[in-house]
Amino acid sequence: MAIKKKKEGSILSFLVVSFASFFAVFMLVISIFSFYQIKHQNDALFDYQLKTAAQVIETILKVYPLEEHEDAKHMMIDKISTSFLNIKNYNQSVGFIVYNRKQRKLILKTSNLPVFRKNYDGITSTTGFEWVYTDSDGNQKHWYTYSLKTDNGNFITVFANNAVKDKISRQIILKFAVLLASTYIILIAFIYYILRTALHPLERINRRVGRINRRVGRINPRKNEKLDDDIVPYEIKPLVEQINSLISKFHQTLEREKRFSGDAAHELKTPIAGVKTLVEIALGSDDIDEIKVRLNRIKSSTNRYSHIIDQLLTLTRIQPNEQITFAKKLMINKVLEILIAENAIKAIEKDIEISFHPSEHDIYCYSNDYLLGILFKNLISNAIKYTENGGLVEVYSHLENNEIVVEVKDNGIGVPPENINRIFDRFYRETGTGEEGSGLGLAIVTEIVRLHHGHIVVKNNPDKGITVTVRIPVEHNNIVDEDENLQDNLK
């Protein structure tokens, strides 16, 4: 059974849903807590209003004796009690009574006095807050009362319908809920706007990359297109830099492919035509000796072209690599000794003296044995190749300013000053030397030195010949054990 791969949504949707869910839960908890607090505070305020209303009525009765201001007092007390309770449109649901238990006499009451189940003695039996019940048209109602006893023995009881109390609480809670919901909607809309604005640079990058992608087949390698990282947020800059690095490497790859194709075509087209001519001459000749001569020349040419192809492939392999792989701790003196020994036969054939002047102390390079072998092998073989018979080739190694310095010095034909900077170009060969070659050796050397973050310098000697100096920084990190198979790997 095939497992369906989970489809990834957008970052914007994920963030908005996450924030919306978080604030929904957060506001729900706040709402529940707030509703209980509102109800508790409303109950406390209601108790305070009933108690204060009773005290105000008591004060009025002391200031205005009932016998002197009875008519005015009824109207005044109704107005004060309802306005003090501050419950609009609920005049029939709040009120008070003044009752004397000793005389069992109802002294004063509001016009909306309900019919309580208890008699007045029962209602005014205790001071403080109490719940009482009434029956009106068969409907049972709850009343919340507060009673206090005056100095002359009268009981003042202020009452309010519980429905009023609950309705006020519901109204406050409803207004709070509407405010909370409105705040939530505005907050989510604001978060959406902020996130959309924050992610807008990613959309610009996406469009820019899309335009570059659509022009992949028509990109000019010399026009190194990049993303603009001047206006992107700090957090996105590393991403833009990595994309620009990728684009730059892509352009470099295209450039290398074009150069490789051009170089290969330029270097191989004419020689192949020459080989073809030699083959046609050999086929048209009846002289066995002449045919052998032509075949030997063909063999020599094919060997040279095979060497050129090998050099091109080597150059192509090392150019894309920005980091050296399979790094080992290599002893420079040991590497040079092995390579000098390998080239000793060539030096002997030309009666060339080759000497090695190693550093006093062992120096190590964090490198790759294959690349390091190609580097120094090319320098040593070139020195032997362009040194006349009976000449001298010297190899030096030492450590200077935390750099490994290797010098290859010869007393050969040298290089004209005007061409000293061209010897690193591909397929460049000094004319008039009589030596054959691909012209790629020093180009390969330059690439390997670049991979080591080093540099190479060529200068003519005061008397005769040239000195090639390679400087490679010493790496102290990630060094592993010295390779025991170094000699085999250098071959």
From TrEMBL:
Pfam families: HATPase_c (PF02518), HisKA (PF00512). Keywords: ATP-binding, Kinase, Membrane, Nucleotide-binding, Phosphoprotein, Transferase, Transmembrane, Transmembrane helix, Two-component regulatory system. It is found in: Membrane. It is a multi-pass membrane protein. This is histidine kinase. The chain crosses the membrane at residues 12-36, 172-195. One of its GO terms (molecular function) is ATP binding. The keyword Flavoprotein does not apply. Residues 263-476 form the Histidine kinase domain. SUPFAM superfamilies: ATPase domain of HSP90 chaperone/DNA topoisomerase II/histidine kinase, Homodimeric domain of signal transducing histidine kinase. Its EC number is 2.7.13.3. It is an enzyme of class 2 (transferase).
